[in-house]
Amino acid sequence: MRLSIALKSLPIFLLSLGVSAQHTPAWPTSPADCVVDGQVVNSITKLPVPGAVVTIYNKHAFRTNDGTIAITDTSIRRPEAAPQDDPRSVTTDEDGQFSFTAVEPGIYVMAAAKESFLRTPYNPYNPTSGGTIQLEPGGAAHGLVIRLRHESVVTGHLRDAGGAPVRGATVALSQYVVGQQGRQLVTRMSGPTNDRGEYKLSGFDADKYYVRAVATGAPMVFYPNSLTPRAPGRSTSLKVTR
Hints:
- With about 240 residues, the chain is mostly beta strands.
- About 0% of the residues lie in helices and about 45% in strands.
- The protein has no helices and 18 strands.
- A hairpin with a 6-residue loop joins strand 16 and strand 17 (about 220).
């Protein structure tokens, strides 16, 4: 059976935290008299984003033997993956504003999330990775801006050579990466086709991808209709933009 992929790109405009080790805090954690506030805006339009959930995570800063301040890591993970981090969340108002009060001194990371957007960390220099917020006793961090990035979506349908929908096939979004074993095509995400042969892949950033499908009893096929990632004289990759 030979498959063909019909696809359309709908440009609609991640986070992990390592477990913190137990150390003596860099500062007294009481009283909890620090403040963090700011605004969530659309990274493209720069307009405020109301209804976004902003979460702040305590990274448990500690002092090393030489007196310097250190933390276990600076990445961000979802609250359910780190209950010991005691994350706090608030929802932005109609102007995209948010505020945390009665915050303990420490070093924090922060992220915002909303449907149809990528979960985006606070970082004034690089919106794809988490920056830190240092709060000494009585300290405040005002006017922090999180530039929420839209997610991209690819949808389409899978049909066999006779035009019938292919159900239960796996459609994957892939990219080439170069590693120790050379240049390899790596799957970024995948999903099944439904009874109508339709599929939807979402929650990824804008970039260049290869779309491929695998069904029982059929060879792997790449969009638009090729057995290899790059057919002679043409590209089978799909550039997804915001």
